[in-house]
Amino acid sequence: MQSFTPGPFDHERLEAFAVAREALRLGDRVTRAIPRGYGTLADQTRRALLSAYLQTAEAASRTGADRRARLRCARAEAGEAAAALEAAALLGLADPERVREARDLLARLCAMLKKLA
């Protein structure tokens, strides 16, 4: 994982955010390799990865039920991103090893978000 120096924002002190950041980075590398003609899959994957990342950040500065709702949304988006990456691998559109790396991070993120919620 890339190192990152925490700053003044709540999400920068959250380990789940660091995992979401790395999943976004790795997942984006996978989607960039998806061939033309499958732009919808690449776009959906990127949107789910980005949403998991941003929802995790937003949840960090919320409290109570609002925080839990954002964490659940982030977890759902991480699950969607994992399924989209799996679809790319199943269709032979992406390197299975890179997909596995990103999916492992997304699984870790889902577990962390579930515990936080």
Keywords:
117 residues, mainly alpha, de novo design (two linked rop proteins), 4 helices
Word description of this protein:
By secondary structure, this protein is an all-alpha fold. It has one domain: de novo design (two linked rop proteins) (Up-down Bundle), CATH 1.20.1440. The protein is 75% helix and 0% strand. It contains 4 helices and no strands. The protein has helices at 15-32, 39-60, 64-90, 96-116. The longest helix has 27 residues, at 64-90. The model has no long low-confidence stretch (mean pLDDT 94).
Shape: elongated
- What low-confidence regions span 5 or more consecutive residues with pLDDT below 50? none
CATH architecture: Up-down Bundle
Tally of individual helices: 4
Question: What would the average pLDDT be, to the nearest integer?
Answer: 94
Question: What is the CATH class?
Answer: Mainly Alpha
The secondary structure category is: mainly alpha
Question: Any idea how many domains?
Answer: 1
Distance between the termini: 24 Å
Helix content: over 70%
**What's the helix-strand series?**
HHHH
CATH domain fold name = de novo design (two linked rop proteins)
- Over the alpha carbons, how many angstroms does the gyration radius reach? 14 Å
Q: How many strands appear in the DSSP assignment?
A: 0
- How large a portion of the residues is in β-strands, by DSSP E? under 5%
Described by its quaternary structure, the protein is single chain
Largest sheet: none
- In CATH terms, the superfamily is 23S rRNA-intervening sequence
